[in-house]
Amino acid sequence: MPPRPLIVRLRNWVGDVILGIPALHLLQAHGYQLQLVGKRWAPALLAGEGWPVHVRPGTLRERVAQLSRCKQDALVNDPGFAGRDNALVLPTSFSGALEMRLAGLRAVGYAQEARGVLLARAEPITYGGHALISYWELACRFLGIARAAPPECIALKTSAADQAQADALLAEHGLAPGFVVVCPFAGGQFEKQDKTWPAFAPFTRALLARGGAVIACPGPGEDEIVRRDHPGVRMLAGVELGVYGALLRRAALVISNDTGPAHLAAAVGVPVLSVLGPTKPEQWAPWGPQVHVLRRWPAWPQVDEAMACVEQLLGAARGAR
Predict the structure, then answer these.
(1) Which CATH superfamily is domain 160-320 in?
(2) Tell me, which fold does domain 4-143 have in CATH?
(3) Over 163-196, what HEC string results?
(4) Which tens digit of pLDDT belongs to each residue from 30-42?
């Protein structure tokens, strides 16, 4: 078949981009050559997939110019590009659709924020289901097919270079595969409520007392949280997302708040204990068969029940080996 370029605007959060990967795999399987547009960290996150990822610039003028260049490049390989639906907008923002329209692209997206007039096709969205299903269904509607989303692990690929760098980093710190990763961070709020487990610090102390290596990979501005609240945890700071995903492949278990690394761990097939508060698991839990959600909302889980889950999950991992 002749090449069929497709420009896809990614979501703005790490977890959302990861949950959109099955939809991207589906589009690729149907012969589309993906040109992705996302945040500055998106190229590192998706490096193992081999998709071109353009970093979205800051101003409207720059964004439209970038999309126009993508359109012109696509026309070189596909003269019929301008005559068909040729872009997919995963975000539901007005600006995402506006930029596509100003660049002369025929974009398909969900009919939100009165942006139907900007899209070539505005699809109705059903709220309340899992975000992965939402992205998957939009890809299916673009393709004109009906297919159930895959229940298995997202199976995000990591590059050989990222895996080599991750293994070298672990060796440098004297860490062998089988360590536990904690993610006591949570970006933003859910419905104006804090997503950070209040008992994470005493939980970490209990986890360290159990024995074995426990590590954390803080993002920008998060180092102090580890030093202040989680002494004894081995801190590997400044790890970019592609290397982080490769590093997580070597973990025995990841325990996390509602945050992007939990989705990343699940996507590379690592057991995850997702400790949730106000976040709705039916909509935003990490995806995959090795995800265990611990939630007692409007209360938070206790340390002892989280430790019981840890013992169960680590025991299952040892049994699988």
Answers:
(1) Glycogen Phosphorylase B; (3.40.50.2000)
(2) Rossmann fold (3.40.50)
(3) HHHHHHHHHHCCCCCCCEEEECCCCCEECCEECC
(4) 999 999 999 999 9
